[in-house]
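As described in the Methods, two query proteins were run sequentially through the folding procedure within a single session, without resetting any intermediate state between them. The first query and its resulting structure tokens are shown here.
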Amino acid sequence: IGNSGDIKFKNITFSYPEAQAPALERVNFALKPGHFNVLFGPSGCGKSTILKLVAGLLEPTAGAAIVGGREVGAIGSHAKRLGLAFQNPTMLPWLSILDNVMIPLKIVEPFRQDYRRKRKGEFRERAEALLEQVGLAGFGNKRPWQLSGGMLQRASLCRALVHEPDILLLDEPFGALDQFTREELWDTMQDLWINRRPTVLLVTHDLRESAYLASRICVMSSRPGRIIEDQRVTFARPRTLESSYQPDFTSLVQSLRMSIAEARARLIQMDRRR
């Protein structure tokens, strides 16, 4: 895979203008190519800020973010190929699902230069194959308003992967769905990752989701965001809903929950001392 999917944060601090405290402070981690990484933590701890730094939408206030072997903000730093999926699938309502999925092929090099020539052939087949893989065969000609929330999120994952990104950034893509649909999509996401192996960075508030999908879980504290626990997840794949009720799985979830509770208790004590 090379270093195209490497993500390294070296002593990163980031402050939004006029904010009273940094969003992130002294964050360090190194993510290996092809691994499924999860950022877990309370609201406001800087998880989405980390995604924006990886995507090159923000630059660190201090420290260095190195993505695909290049420092964010440096010349040529956007040469890595990224895929993005969010809590809201953000499909363009005037396009079919198939055309929505093919949008990255229209705007991302090297596909962009071949789009007109291949959009009705190779690129269409590529998008249709992805839709079939996530259970949406035959839905390519539908409009977004004709699909359920879970179906739209499946299509959103296809759009994020159609251009074969080195790095896939997922910002709570299952957070707005009901529990049953969310668990179905865990399996969909796991299958897509196993078959393609991009470096994944998933932001979530769901402990079970973290343990189900991750190769590695980075737990964050709030005010300002720091990594307080870095947990490897070694359960065999493919993981199943049945395996998520096994003692080792529930033990990991409980251990993560305790880490967060202890971090919150420390913050409360620090606040009382001030």
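Immediately afterward, the second query was submitted; its sequence and tokens are:
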Amino acid sequence: MSTILECNGLSHKYGKKTALENVSFRVESGKIVGIFGPNGCGKTTLMKILTGMIHDKNGAVNICGNAVSEKTKAVVSYSPDSFAFKNDRKVSDIIEAYETIYEDFDGETAQKSLEELGIYAKDIVGKLSKGNCEKLQIILTMSRHARLYILDEPFNGVDPVARENIIRIMLEKVPEDSSLLLSTHQISEIENILDEALFLKDGRLVFDGSIDELRDKNGRSLTDAYMEEFR
């Protein structure tokens, strides 16, 4: 087992407001890790640092042994918490664009997965529901052969049945030597697929451990532990 992601003393401020403070953790290959915390706790800031969207940080980040750079961007597949495709584009246009931009993108698999969710190549993005836009973005992200997949609130606007399908597709698509890092408020929906969890509170890491360890030591579910920490 190798280390996919390592953060040491990671801190960031927006002006005088602290978004992250001295955050350190490690993600090994083959792991699915959930990042949890209330709105404004630093989850999205952390993900943007990992993907190179935020540069002015303190501390160190290493992905597959490299500092955040063009080299790490090539092995990280990121789904942000907001949809960014133009409304007049067809789904087929976006698939073609991904095939051009990302050498590791599997367009055929993406199209097949989208069809399973009722989204077709001829569909116009602007005519898709909010839930279907979320599905499109997630499938595009998961159809790359990356080492680290990062999903920020992937279930916003997605109905329970679609969530089940998306979780199934996520599990099918993550290679054994890759890792998945995701944030969501739908804790109970994904607890059974997680290996580890991180809790962020006011920019600080207040829990970092395995789900089994959490259950064994405290006899609680992840949801119970979260409610106790953030109530």
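Strands lie at 3-14, 17-28, 32-36, 58-63, 66-67, 76-79, 148-152, 179-183, 196-201, 204-210. We note this only descriptively and draw no conclusion about the first query from it.
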